[in-house]
Amino acid sequence: MRISFKGIHAELIKITSVSINRIVILILLAAQIIVAIIDAKSILTVGLDATPETSPMLFEAIPPVEFLGFDILQFGIVIFIALAALMGAADFSHHELRQGFLLISKRRTLVNVRFIANSFVLLMVSSLVISLSVITTHLVIGSQEIPPLFLQPKIWLMIDQAVLSWTFAGIFTFSLASLLRKALPALLSMNSFVVGLTAFILEKWSWTSWLPINAYQNIAFHNSDSMVKDGIVGTFCMIVWIIFLSKLSNQQFYKINIGGEY
Question: Is the pLDDT of residue 258 over 70?
Fold first, then answer.
């Protein structure tokens, strides 16, 4: 694989200097922390030991302390996928693709640089947002069993799984947006499943667990042997889908007329 470390550095600077990317990242970080605070305070209101019998407003019992803060991550991933879609389509607007060729003349090298740099940014953003969200939850709850700044290894493992899940979903969306050359179709196609269609589709067709819309969700929050197996399968499926979609996107990229629309 041909890469240029100078090109990766330049691409990272370009990604982080785009105003819309900064705005979306700040919105994502602020919104996820606010949701974490609200969720933690609502848990404190009903009590850590609350059950549907003691609190009729609950559909299920409050999970153990170490699992708190993970269920609300479904909120943030909607914004995160929007960020990935914007990043994937960014080079195909306002002739920004030509700027990349000023530094890297070979298309194959530029493709690799774009993929590595954007994947790294998505990994860093997901790590920051998820870690701060979970830590904020435990700070608000103030449990003596789990010091917020010294989380248990089990919690860090679940954070790693969530980061992996988000990152794979983001890279897949980035690749899809690069293939379509537009952010909106990729954003809507992924987020439509994130916000509720996944469970419906999986219930009707079990084979859809191999599709990316379901596979990335199997990676995170596993606390049993069977779910660990699902996580491994989900990780494998996402890697295969990302490679497949990237190949399609790359082949299309090689045929782009730089002197034309892009």
Answer: no
